Amino acid sequence: MHDPSLDPSPPRRGWLAPGDAFWRTLLGLPELALVAESCAGERRLHDALAADPARPIDEAALAAVADSDARDNWATFLAYRDAVLGAGTLEAHYLALMRGGRVAVPPVFVATTLAAIVAHLLEETSDAFERRAGQLLHREQRISLNDGRVLAADLETIDALDAAASGDVIGSLLRRDGSHASASTLSVLSADNADALRSDNDARRFVLDLTHEVSSEVGHGLVFTMTRAHSGLGALARVLERWIRHFLGVETTIRPLPRIDDAAWSWHIGLDVDSSAMLDDLYRGTDLDGARAQRLLALFRLDFADAREMRADLAGKPVYLGLAMGEQGTLKLKPQNLLVNLPLAASS
Prior knowledge:
This protein has 348 residues and is of the alpha+beta class. Helices cover 40% and strands 18% of the residues. The two termini are 31 Å apart.
């Protein structure tokens, strides 16, 4: 759902200038929310910022927060707010932050910023699969592998349901062939239930099937392979194309691959920590062992629409992308890797 306080910024490709509602979202986080033990100084500070989130705050108002941990949280929030306001847009600050090396901003602030940017990117789309895939850019996923299928569920949502059900919620869905579940559980997103996905909160209730191709035996040793019409990987690829266009102004096409067969392989980018290391090994000719290879969920090929926007020595060559889950079966996508590691021409 569109936040009217996030107004497109004319100077750079519709970037978003944060308004009061965005800051109030951060003020509502547990780290900043008032609790019974909040002192009078913290209550005054919270109320002042809730009324006018961009107002200047002097050192005396911050020092009046008695609890040192709460005071540190408020100082962190104010430093982040002032840095974003100074940058002018959420995208300008995020891009500078990711290109600047070590990120000192709390992950929850970064995730909230990413959620606002992704919502803006997908504001005009009616594709439920793209809306659910967009959440992979800012919400950690739990992955389930079963009979050749790769399913991604919102980690926070699935863990809450697992605790309540004391079982494997995703596996249960598979055993029901992905049929629509009750409102208190999850459903595998499909063409049959896509109309029920109307908001970001709705999207968290749906499991995204990342299985791009399905194979079936047709007899006489022949196997027929077909690309799924509603592929979660295809939807993710389209979202990543939008992401690159929005931040870098560069047109690309991204498509899932079953494997990389390229003797002239020149450039790759992992979309998460684990796939980055895996692609490095594959590039050097090192095979992945069985357990590690199973964690490599997907490969993609990225091509620039205009080779002149690439580094001269790589112009016209594909960029390979990888997606993998960690040892604990979770996926934490790092979309900033595309912004800082694409081989762009110097003027891009």
